[in-house]
Each structure stands twice: as C-alpha cells, then as structure tokens.
C-alpha cells in the first residue's frame, strides 16, 4: 500500500515538472516583471527617421478624443470600461514630438496653464514691488498657426473571426482568432482663416488569438486521465491606437509636403522626394486593399488552358467498381471576371473488377463560376453537359463539380477539384438494371495556364 502511494506521488511530481517545462517552452509568465519603458511600434522608428524640416511648425491640439462611444465587449453582463483608451490626445502629442517636425503647445489643459501664469503674476506683484517691471512680466504664450482636430471615430468588434480544431481518440487541439479594428481621422486646420488644409484617415486591426490542447481518456474503468494546455494572446489596444495615430501623423506630414501646406518649413527643399515616392507607392497599393488587409488584383486573364490528372470511379449496375486514372485537357474563356466558358476533352475508364471494363473519350462543355476572381485563392463551381464516345453508340451525361484554385505565379494556378457525372441512361456498361441511372465521381489535380499579361 505504501509503495502504491509513493508511486502516485512520484507520477504527480513528474506531471507537475512536465507542466512547468511546457509553461517555460510556451513563454508563459511565471514571475513578476519590473516596470519597463513603453514599447515602440513600427511607425515610431519611421517618425524619428523622417528628414527634418528647415523650420518646425508650431501646432496645437485641443482635443483628440475617443468618439466611438464603444464599450469593451463582455460575455457576462455589462462592461462600462471603454474599448478605446481615453488618453489619445497625449498619444498624438508624443507622436508629434517624435516626428521632430512640430512644436506642440499646451492646449488640452489651457485653463491650468493660464491659472498658473496668473498665480505667477500675482506673486511677483505682491513680493517684487520694488523690482524692475520688465523683469516681472511673463513672456507671451506661443500661438499655433495650425490646429489638429479629429479623433478615434470607429471601433469595430469581430471584423473577422475563425478557428481550426480536431479531436481524435481523446486527444484534441484547437486554435481561434478574432480581429477588431479602429479607425482614426486627423485633420489640420489653419488658424488664420479656419480652412481645413488636409484630412488623413488610417486604420489598424487588433488581433486576439488562442491555442488550446487537451487530452481526455479513460485509462481504466475507474481511472480518467485529463490534461489541458492553452495560450491566449491579445494585442494591446493602446499600442494599436498609438500605431494608427503615428501613421496618421506621418501621412499628414507627407501629404502636407505634396500640397505645400507647411510653407517655410520645406520651402525650396528637395530632400523629401524619396519620402513622397514611397508614400505614393503605398497609396497606389492601398487602392486595391479590402477589409481583412487583403490586396485583390486581376490575376486572371481572358484565356487559359489547363490539364488535369483524374481518378475516376463508376457507380453502375455491377459490383466491384474500381478507381482508374484518366486525364483531361481543355481551354477556358472568361466572359466576365467571375464566369468562364470551358471546353475540354478527357479520357474516362469504366471498370467493374473481373466483370466489365470500357474506355470512353469524353468532350464536355461547362459554365464555371469563380467566387473570388481577384484573389490568389478562390473556390469555384461549374456545371455542364458531355458526350461519352466508345466503339458503341455515344452516351450523354450531365456533370457538376467544384474545387479550389491557387495562383502560384502571375500566369500559373494549381487546381484540385471533384466532379459528379450523371448519366441520362442506365447502360454505360451495357446492362440496364435498377432504378438509378449510371453515374461516376472524379477527383482531379491540375494546372491552369493563363495566357497573356494582367
């Protein structure tokens, strides 16, 4: 009995050591961490490395707030915490400082500043009555030639969600993800006449992911072994807001150079052409960007030729059907980006083991529909009619199918597909028996060559 207890203690200790090792492997925190300096985003470095202006621009920010009214999503009751940090004005001022293009002046809490200056004046008047009056006066406040307005105008939850998982014999693993998105507008306003000089718009996704693994199995009738491990990671909203604001500041600087709104700050200088060219390329690329940070293009041309290797199996009136290998070649002509007309010829073998075997040459015509014609990866569906020629009289059929296509190059795509053939008669193999027409199923792997340039 004592040996049994010691054995159980040993296995428990070993299991805890394994769990600790897994925790270290996955980088899970196990000790308190010291406070650190704030993380930099990718745009922090870009802002700091911008070419400097001839003269800095004095700029004021009264209010750059969360205008979404969005609260954090909660599964259990109401959550009155806001989804967006409320210190976005401070984040914007830090980005302006990092760019070294601007002299930000205090305007968010201007009342505090004016009150403190009044205290200074009163104190000097009270205790420095005999001093020189010029030494008592305060220097004037800086005034801004440009004001920055705008804010975080949108927080969209669950823009994209998904996951993947599998479980077999008590062992399972799964992963899930969720994407939120924030949107920021920033505009520059002239204090001279109130004209809105420039407005820029940026967005940033916020990613949350989780990975989980589990083991659940009965070792014996009364013994159950169960184990779980998981990791969840959420992108900090504050960093996402910071990155979006820094991108907006950079965009404002570059577009301001293009439209010559910075005046003497860049007058007569040509040091910014490479910066403008880079930004222009990004704008051109962004023209095709869609939600989910996808960049669809017109990958497919009007005409293509293809070749498939197919595995075919017939369902007919005999037993013992056998899978055979065949092939298909054809041409496609696109009537529109999504629809194309296909003509093909293929070789089809019908076989029932030790009973019947017959080969057919089959021309087909299909109408095909591509679900995402402007993406590299697209599902597709098709249907049409065909004729089966052998030594006997031809047979006629209809077919439907579908598959997946992936562009591996500008003109080359890989395809996997499945096709279901439905006969109009019941005598493909020369026997009429049963209620159902002869039919077959095919699985294909092929290559599609698009002719011409995009």
UniProtKB/TrEMBL annotation:
Residues 1-23 form the signal peptide. Pfam families: CsgG. Keywords: Cell membrane, Lipoprotein, Membrane, Palmitate, Signal. One of its GO terms (cellular component) is outer membrane-bounded periplasmic space. PROSITE patterns: PROKAR_LIPOPROTEIN. This is Curli production assembly protein CsgG. It comes from Chryseobacterium soli.
